[in-house]
Design brief:
Layout (H helix, E strand, L loop, with lengths): L45 H18 L6 H15 L10 E5 L6 E4 L3 E5 L1 H5 L3 H16 L2 H12 L4 H13 L1 H11 L4 H25 L6 H14 L6 H5 L4 H12 L10 H13 L9 H8 L3 H17 L3 H14 L4 H13 L3 H9 L8 H13 L3 H14 L4 H13 L3 H14 L3 H14 L5 H20 L6
Parallel strand pairs: 1-3
Antiparallel strand pairs: 2-3
């Protein structure tokens, strides 16, 4: 696997600015909300929501402990797009992110951006339960709940729309801090805001459970997971964080259960990818606590074939993380022999090879992989293996193509910066680092790096012109983002 360099920055202003919901397209009758007094278009256009989404997702990258794991990112985005393909009123692209956080939560915000906490992998017993949370958040987006909330605040409180947005997003992303902000900022309108959110939750359940069933998942998973959250709240001194951002009265659970009971039952099994993702999330992103326990792996080993493979993969993963490379290789080899083209197994095999300094073997395996041309994960693995194996020139060629096709993947830019440093291409190294800064919302720093790169490039060269053109683009982006940076 291409092991990310995690940037552990505190969750600051931006996760505080992350929750909301956005907009959608051609609605099926059963997915259309009753008129709540606004279409939300008078507050925000779709174009404005897309622009705001771009701003806030950059801030999210810069401030939250995002898990930039290519494999997990690929999995949650594939699962999310399966659900989106069965949703109605979709007017924007969707993107799914994973945050390293042991609190159960999920949220959505402008631009079709949906964020999941890694704890969901611990608490979801099956793929349908995980999908039920995602379908709920997708429905917040397609029903434009954040824009509606902004319109409601605009009518009920003497606040600018920027102030209302900040308070609403803060309350949803950081519940305890958010409630304090609502108390001080919205004063007497707080209860109205909370009630509005409860109505949104019921609507997101209603639409989400339809999306869940149409996507081939078990609709009973939604009330089952909600019931699990309520049970946890009953026996805890502090309710799960998700219940602070997503109110769950008993009536909401009853309504979800009734709707599921009226739907055609769906018999489904969790995919192998779900179990492998669960093993990976728990084994690698656990805030210092081992959540992929021996008891859990033993239980999986007694399950179906998918679970048995995930148990074996989990053991190999834990061995690799502990630098027991020979043991990890022995555990992984039967899986790799049975499924030589599995991106999950190829990724782990690469990490084991690199840990053992077997660079040539890792490179050869990846270059011969059937799906290399179509798999961003394998391409990143190969670029990393080439770099570690002293073949930086080949890695540069691969990463120049990769970053052209995947401009919003910071993994590619970070690797390219390392490659350019190894080749002593100082201006190109700075330009690659600038792209990482820009993706994290640090536009001023990105412009500074590009200015230095331009000064290092040959006067009048195409390279210098490219850097200067990119500086102009980022300056224009700064201007577009100015309304959202006001305090």
């Amino acid at each position: 696997m291409f092991r990310q360099l995690q940037k552990k920055r505190a969750i600051a202003l931006i996760v505080a600015l992350t929750i909301g919901q956005i907009s959608p397209a051609f609605a099926a009758p059963e997915d259309t909300l009753p008129d709540m007094g606004t279409s939300a278009a008078s507050t925000l256009s779709i174009g404005q929501e897309m622009q705001m989404g771009d701003y806030y997702v950059r801030q999210l990258r810069g401030s939250a402990p995002l898990i930039n794991d290519p494999l997990l990112g690929q999995y949650i985005n594939a699962l999310g797009m399966r659900l989106v393909s069965h949703a109605s009123s979709v007017k924007t692209p969707f993107h799914f992110f994973l945050i390293n956080n042991d609190e159960i939560n999920a949220f959505a915000f402008f631009g079709g951006n949906v964020v999941l906490h890694s704890a969901l992998f611990r608490y979801a017993d099956n793929e349908s339960q995980l999908a039920s949370v995602m379908a709920h958040e997708i429905s917040h987006v397609t029903q434009r709940h954040l824009a509606r909330a902004m319109e409601d605040q605009k009518r009920s409180a003497p606040l600018t729309w920027v102030g209302a947005l900040g308070s609403i997003l803060l309350a949803m992303a950081s519940p305890q801090a958010g409630m304090a902000a609502l108390t001080g900022t919205l004063a007497g309108t707080r209860q109205g805001t909370i009630s509005f959110t409860q109505q949104n939750e019921q609507e997101a359940d209603r639409i989400g459970i339809q999306v869940l069933q149409r996507s081939g998942f078990d609709p009973q998973a939604m009330p089952t997971f909600l019931e699990k959250l309520l049970e946890q709240a009953r026996y805890s001194t502090r309710p799960p964080e998700i219940l602070l951002t997503h109110p769950l009265p008993e009536s909401r659970l009853s309504d979800a259960r009734n709707r599921a009971n009226q739907m055609r039952p769906v018999v489904t099994q969790s995919t192998e990818a779900f179990w492998l993702a669960k093993a990976r999330a728990l084994g690698m992103y656990n805030s210092g606590r081992n959540q992929l326990t021996s008891d859990m792996l033993a239980e999986w080993a007694k399950g179906n074939v998918r679970q048995q493979r995930a148990a074996q993969y989990g053991r190999a993963l834990l061995a690799m993380n502990a630098s027991r490379y020979d043991e990890a290789q022995k555990l992984l080899q039967p899986l790799l022999s049975a499924e030589p083209n599995s991106v999950w197994y190829l990724d782990l095999a690469t990490d084991i090879d690199l840990g053992q300094k077997k660079f040539a073997g890792a490179i050869a395996r990846l270059q011969n992989a059937r799906d290399l041309r179509a798999s961003p994960v394998l391409q990143l693995n190969l670029a990393n293996a080439l770099l570690q194996g002293g073949r930086a020139q080949e890695a540069e060629t691969l990463l120049n193509r990769y970053t052209f096709n995947h401009k919003e993947d910071s993994n590619g830019w970070d690797l390219l910066a390392q490659v350019e440093a190894a080749l002593n291409h100082r201006d190109q190294e700075l330009a690659a680092r600038a792209e990482s800064y820009a993706l994290a919302g640090q536009l001023e720093q990105a412009i500074g790096l590009l200015s230095t790169a331009s000064s290092l490039a040959k006067l009048g060269s195409q390279q210098q012109a490219r850097y200067d053109a990119r500086i102009d683009q980022l300056n224009r982006l700064q201007e577009r983002f100015k309304p959202y940076t006001k305090r």
